[in-house]
Each structure stands twice: as structure tokens, then as C-alpha cells.
Design goal:
Rossmann fold; binds pyridoxal-5'-phosphate; globular
Length: 454
């Protein structure tokens, strides 16, 4: 029998995260205070994030950051995650390529997000923080953080975009199951929420508003810190357990990837699977290609510009040097809610600029077609976000079919789609549509970032 799954025991859970900042030929540009335009120090971030995360954010020297034992113990509930050879998908495609996927959908939260949620909750607890807060759109990050907070015995307050709160009751129920306090945003509990509701009492909210509310709560409440589930350097750092395990598992399979693929929202699961392999491109002359798969409706890497921009719609965050389509961007309501962010993380942006990675964009219907083929061959229903990685994998595997090349392709299955079956319904009913950003729309949003760079 051919070996399908490559399984590592709990003792092989990595003991350190890989910090790619330490080995990048060009370090990321500094993040700037929006008023003074001076680079921020870790201390400047302490009012918002817990100290250890703030320090990790700006650490450009330590290549390996030890994973606390308490976090490894929590990882053991679902790590090491399996690496799987997708023989049936290969067969259906008729490709000579060898396709592998790292299955992060086996976590209790159903996605990779728990890898950072557990670390962030642990560091908050260790610092004496009693309450962590965040925003959530589709609900994946909120769900992961609720579980992590529960595990470390701290409270979790989630601002959930009002439209999702009403339309996506199941993710709300997941957060409730893990005992989080969930507030539909905009709310009357913050200045930011009140300002919006007094103008429009029916405002259905946005991720930008929810971020503003969560940050306001964190800076105005003692022993309360804000957390974020993507984009930031420390979040991407925590995700490197994915690629570090995958590296060992690929070796068990006797292979090394020619191509590594992940879907791309803010870039955390991409970083997680990619950086441990990318270090061998940087240090050992390996030639692996790294492909970020993003939606055509939110094309920050394929059509955005590298410049300073705010991380949020309201303009409360520091200025971040990143590929962006502009912080005022209003994304279409595609089903891959986790990919609707206007910018790419600072590290990925620098790596993209320096040619270490590439990006491809996919229409929503094409991604579901890919996801359905994956489900019918490999038996796992992928999250709408993960469907983008599968679409890119299929595209590369079909290229191999044309050229006859036996390339090794590794992709990250960032999550399962059990809470997203409404999206599959929409696909099967034929009602699903695609949204392509016009050049005019792009120029309009981009202007909001351009204005900060003059
Ligand atoms: C949040 C999410 C993403 C996108 O976030 P990244 O930070 O880009 O990884 C992708 N897949 C799933 C399942 C998610 O929940």
C-alpha cells in the first residue's frame, strides 16, 4: 500500500517558531507613527498588544523564538497535524505532479488560526491580563480566540460585524460555546460605535468599525489587550509551526516541494507554510516557488501598490509598509470572508517586492469548482478561503500535465468548510457571482493610500 498520511508524534511539535525577519536580505521597512512619521518601538505598541507579542513584532534579530511549554501542551490537542498525499486528486487531474497538503482543518477551531490564538492568549495571561478583545468578520478568528482564552482562563470579548452576527449564527454559537462575550458592531459600548449609530441607527457594520471598537475597549480598560488574527508579524511567526512540521513530514515522504501554495488574506497561513521552506531559498540556494492565492475581488498582491497605508478603515493603526489597495477599500461580499482584507502583512510585502514569492488571483466560482473536486476526491470539504489554494494547486498541477513534469506541490489546507455550507449552497444553485474590481474602483481606493505617501 502506498503511504498516504505522514504523521509526527506530539514529541515532534516544534520547540521554536522561525522568525524570517532575522534572515531576510532586506528587512521590512519600519512601521511609522501616523502623526510624527517616526518608527515605532515595541514599547509604543504596549498599550494595545501584550508585551511579548509587541517585542516579537519588531524582532529582526532572533531567528528562533522558543515556544513556551504551556503553548506546546495546548498545541498537543491537535498537533502535529497530518501531511497528506492527495493521490485521488492527482488521479482525477491526470497529472504527473505529486500533490501534498498540510491539514490545518483538524484543529478544534477548524482552521490554522488557533496556532496564534493560543500563543496570544498565553502571553496575555502570563502578563496578568484578564480580558482580551478582538473583532471578527466571518467569525473564524473570534472562534479560535474564544477557545484559546477559555483554555488559559481569561475572558474574551469579541466585536462581530453586525451583518455577520445576524447572517452567520453558527460561528456566533461556536464563540458562545467557548464562553466569549459577543457584541454586534457597531455598538453603543464605545465612542466609535456611538458615533456611527447616531448618524445611522441601522448601520450593519464593517471590519474597520469592529477593529476601532475592539481597540478602543483595549486601550480604555485596565488589564485588557487587543489581539489580531492575521497580517501582523507576530501572528505570522506563530503560524510557522505549520511549515516546520511539514518540512519534517516531506522528508518522511522522501520529497521536497518545488511549489508551496497557500490562500492569502492578510498572509498568516501563507507565512506559516512558506517561511520554513523559504529559509532554504534564502540560505541554501533552493529554488522553491511560493504562490499566494487571493480572490480577484480583493487583489492586493496582484494589483495593489507597495506603499504606506493604515491597517484599518478608520485610520487608527500605525502606518504599515505593504501591498495595499487602499484602507478605504470596500470589499464585495464574497464567501471567502477571511480573504477580504485590503493589505498584505509587512513581511510578505517586502518578500513580494524582493521576488521571493508570487501571487495569483482567482474568481470565486473557480475556487468553489476546485473545492468541490477536492472534496469529491480527498473527502474533506474545504473552507471557501482554502478553496483558493486548491484552485492554484490544480492550475499548477495541470501545467505539469502539459509539460510532463513530475513537480512536487505542497499546499496548506487552512480550514474546513463545515460552517460555510451556505456558500456551497449558493455555488450549487448557480446563484454565485464573481466580482472583479474595475480599474476605476481600484484607482479610487488606492488614492486613500497614495495620499499618505506624498
Ligand atoms: C482567516 C482565514 C484565512 C485567511 O487568513 P490568513 O491570515 O491570510 O491566513 C484563510 N483560511 C482560513 C480557513 C481562515 O480562517
Amino acid at each position: 500500500m502506498k503511504q498516504k498520511k505522514f504523521i509526527l508524534p506530539e514529541s515532534e511539535i516544534p520547540t521554536a517558531w522561525f522568525n524570517i525577519q532575522a534572515v531576510m536580505p532586506n528587512k521590512p521597512l519600519p512601521i511609522l507613527h501616523p502623526g510624527t512619521r517616526q518608527p515605532l518601538s515595541a514599547e509604543d505598541l504596549y498599550p494595545i498588544f501584550c508585551e511579548e507579542c509587541s517585542n516579537q513584532e519588531l524582532d529582526t534579530t532572533n531567528e528562533w523564538i522558543p515556544i513556551p511549554e504551556e503553548v506546546r501542551e495546548q498545541y498537543a490537542a491537535y498537533r502535529c497535524t497530518p501531511l497528506v498525499r492527495a493521490y485521488d486528486l492527482e488521479k482525477a487531474l491526470g497529472t504527473p505532479a505529486h500533490i501534498y497538503f498540510k491539514n490545518e482543518s483538524v484543529s478544534p477551531a477548524g482552521s490554522h488560526k488557533l496556532n496564534s490564538a493560543l500563543a496570544q492568549a498565553y502571553y496575555a495571561k502570563k502578563q496578568g491580563i484578564t480580558n482580551i478583545t478582538t473583532e471578527t468578520g466571518a467569525g473564524q478568528w473570534g472562534g479560535a480566540l474564544s477557545y484559546a482564552a477559555k483554555k488559559f482562563g481569561i475572558d474574551c470579548a469579541v466585536y462581530m460585524v453586525k451583518a455577520s452576527y445576524n447572517q452567520k449564527p453558527y460561528r456566533r454559537s461556536i464563540m458562545q460555546t467557548f464562553d466569549a462575550a459577543i457584541t454586534p458592531s457597531p455598538s453603543m459600548s464605545t465612542r466609535a460605535g456611538k458615533d456611527i449609530l447616531t448618524v445611522n441607527p441601522n448601520d450593519q457594520g464593517s471590519l474597520g468599525t469592529a477593529i476601532s471598537e475592539a481597540i478602543e475597549l483595549a486601550v480604555s480598560t485596565p488589564n485588557c489587550k487587543y489581539t489580531l488574527g492575521s497580517v501582523l508579524n507576530h501572528v505570522c511567526l506563530h503560524q510557522t509551526v505549520i511549515g516546520l512540521e511539514a518540512e519534517k513530514q516531506m522528508a518522511m515522504a522522501g520529497e521536497y516541494p518545488d511549489i508551496v501554495i497557500a490562500c492569502f488574506g492578510g498572509g498568516s497561513n501563507f507565512s506559516g507554510i512558506a517561511y520554513p521552506f523559504m529559509r532554504h531559498n534564502i540560505q541554501d540556494g533552493k529554488k522553491t516557488r511560493f504562490i499566494a492565492a487571493e480572490p480577484s475581488s480583493c487583489p492586493k498582491l496582484t494589483r495593489g501598490k507597495f506603499e504606506y497605508d493604515f491597517g484599518d478603515e478608520a485610520g487608527l493603526t500605525p502606518l504599515l509598509p505593504m501591498y495595499t489597495i487602499g484602507h478605504t477599500f470596500k470589499p464585495a461580499t464574497i464567501h471567502a470572508g477571511g480573504l477580504r482584507y485590503h493589505g498584505a502583512g509587512v513581511i510578505m510585502s517586502q518578500l513580494m517586492k524582493d521576488g521571493f514569492m508570487e501571487a495569483q488571483d482567482y474568481d470565486q466560482t473557480e475556487t468553489f469548482k476546485a473545492g468541490v473536486l477536492f472534496a469529491r476526491t480527498e473527502g474533506i470539504i474545504p473552507a471557501p478561503e482554502s478553496c483558493h489554494a486548491i484552485a492554484a494547486t490544480i492550475k499548477e498541477a495541470l501545467k505539469c500535465k502539459e509539460t510532463g513534469e513530475e513537480k512536487v506541490i505542497l499546499f496548506n489546507l487552512s480550514g474546513h468548510g463545515f460552517v460555510d455550507m451556505a456558500a456551497y449552497d449558493s455555488y450549487f444553485s448557480g446563484e454565485m457571482t464573481n466580482y472583479e474590481l474595475t480599474d476605476e474602483e481600484l484607482a479610487k481606493y488606492q488614492a486613500s493610500a497614495d495620499a499618505l505617501n506624498q
